[in-house]
Amino acid sequence: MKTIKQPPGRWTTITLCSLLATGCGYQQYQAHPIAAAQGHVSLRAHDTGDSGFLAYLQAEGHHNLPGEWGWQELMLCTLYFHPDLDVARTQLGRAMASITTAAQRPNPGISMGAGRRNEPEVPEVYSLSFNIPIETAGKRQARIDMATNLSESARLNIAQTTWNLRYRLLSSWIEFNAAHQNLVLLQQEAKLREEIVTMLTLRLQAGMISSVELSNAKLQWQKTEQAVVEEQGRTDVLKTQLASNAGLPLNKFDQLQLRLDTADQLLNMQHDTAMINTLNPATQDAALLNRVDIRAGLASYAASEARVRLEIARQYPDISLAPAYNYEEGFHIWSLGINSLLHILHRNQGQIAEAIALRETEAAQFEALQARVIASMDSARSLYRSALQVLEQARHVYEAQQSQTEQAKLRFEHGFADRLELWTYQLENLLAKQRLISAEYQIQRAAAALEDSMQLPLENLESMPANTQHHTPQPHQEITS
After folding, report:
1. Most CB within 10 Å of its CB: which of 77, 158, 292, 404?
2. Rounded-to-integer distance, Cα 255 and Cα 180, Å
3. Do 81 and 57 meet the contact criterion of CB atoms below 8 Å apart?
4. Side-by-side strand order, sheet with 109-116
5. SS3 sequence, the chain?
6. 62-458: CATH homologous superfamily?
7. What is the chain's pLDDT, residue by residue, as a tens digit (481 residues)?
8. String of DSSP letters for 97-141
């Protein structure tokens, strides 16, 4: 019987066309070089008059640029310009891309061969085989779960970065205002001490006082003058920090009209002492659940749990189907093979142990984070309560000193006191005012620290549930929900 030869030319053509088709749609490399000066130029380009920033203000409900800038208006600049948020966003983009990577199935393989034999009747030999990998034991889903939880942690990192920037901006705003007010009061104090020195000099010339009294007054005046110079330098440094936290260069920040505190506003501010009593354990637990780093810790733990599942699934080998076609001696030969690894030397024990250790580490870090947060809340609450007491005492001293100064003014107007006595009482009144304003800013610092410990503005405490059960989140709860 004569063998019918059917050279598979059509198979070769189909295969080559398939390979050409798979070559379509590839991405091309595009270089994006970065220069050291690029970041410098980018920072200098930040401007509140930028069209993109104006569009952002309109999207946030502000139709025009603010006439005066407080810390809340500057926060809009921070959210738009600060590079730390760009870093957090790119990290989220990388984490989201990892989900795509985790969801990818392994690509099949193809192998082709052609040969020639010495026999003239059957000169050609062709072979074509495929390799189709199949993952087993839910490895792909475990990878997706791990990448999804890591992306959730990266998403929460944006919120954490935003809150950190808010706290940094608020803190620098408080410090800048405090330095500005302290500078104004120090200048007033220096002027009063200068006038007192002038009056004491005249009295010394008249033989009414000793030189020791004048020397002491001059020394206090010189110290105050030195304090004015130092506070002026500190104010400039704090202004630079404030501009940096707002994401603006200093030359553009100097163009903004800031809404700074005034002494009258500070003296008339009232604080609700009952607010501190609302920070009961239930409210603290609700705030604890609200913290971004707590939720990020749960997401990280869930990712480590998914990794344990993945490593355990890798105990079971994947398989590969290998269908093949051969043309030899005029015969068409079809075959099907199955390939797999033999887990004889090890069964992924090392990787499983590493994943379990990582999960235990994440759980321990979560517990430590909770402990730090609770301790921070308790500490911030105590500091706020202490600051309230200091403020109350400073207010009583200032009010008493004001009364004495008014009496000295009346005695001076009726001729029962001289000018030096009046100026001395005014100086003591100014020093009491300094202590009161310093206590007021200490309240603001304590309130900012209390907000940071809860990651919640104090004005939102009223919306917190009042009867929340005493409860702290556990890592496994995120997994089972």
Report:
1. 77
2. 17
3. no
4. 109-116, 124-134, 319-328, 331-340
5. CCCCCCCCHHHHHHHHHHHHHHCCCCCCCCCCCCCHHHHHHHHHCCCCCCHHHHHHHHHCCCCCCCCCECHHHHHHHHHHHCHHHHHHHHHHHHHHHHHHHHHCCCCCEEEEEEEECCCCCCCEEEEEEEEEEECCCCHHHHHHHHHHHHHHHHHHHHHHHHHHHHHHHHHHHHHHHHHHHHHHHHHHHHHHHHHHHHHHHHHHHCCCCCHHHHHHHHHHHHHHHHHHHHHHHHHHHHHHHHHHHCCCCHHHHCCCCECCCCHHHHHHCCCCHHHHHHCCHHHHHHHHHHCHHHHHHHHHHHHHHHHHHHHHHCCCCCEEEEEEEEEECCEEEEEEEEEECCCCCCCCHHHHHHHHHHHHHHHHHHHHHHHHHHHHHHHHHHHHHHHHHHHHHHHHHHHHHHHHHHHHHHHHHCCCCCHHHHHHHHHHHHHHHHHHHHHHHHHHHHHHHHHHHHCCCHHHHHHCCCCCCCCCCCHHHHHHC
6. Outer membrane efflux proteins (OEP) (1.20.1600.10)
7. 333 344 445 545 555 555 545 555 678 888 877 766 555 556 667 888 888 899 999 998 888 888 899 999 999 999 999 999 999 999 999 999 999 999 999 999 999 888 876 766 666 788 899 999 999 999 999 999 999 999 999 999 999 999 999 999 999 999 999 999 999 999 999 999 999 999 999 999 988 888 999 999 999 999 999 999 999 999 999 999 999 999 999 999 999 999 999 998 998 888 876 666 666 777 777 777 888 999 999 999 999 999 999 999 999 998 999 999 888 777 788 888 898 888 888 888 999 999 999 999 999 999 999 999 989 988 998 999 999 999 999 999 999 999 999 999 999 988 888 999 999 999 999 999 999 999 999 999 999 999 999 888 887 766 665 544 434 444 543 333 2
8. HHHHHHHPPPPPEEEEEEEE-S-SSS-EEEEEEEEEEE--TTHHH
The answer to whether 172 and 241 have CB atoms below 8 angstroms apart is yes
Q: What number of residues does the chain have?
A: 481
Which amino acid, one-letter code, is at 260?
L
Could you tell me if 428 and 401 are in contact, meaning their C-beta atoms sit under 8 angstroms apart? yes
Residue recorded with tokens 């076609």 = 325
> What does the DSSP assignment read for 133-150?
EE--TTHHHHHHHHHHHH
Separation between Cα atoms, residue 188 and residue 186, nearest integer Å: 5
Tokens 């952002």, residue? 56
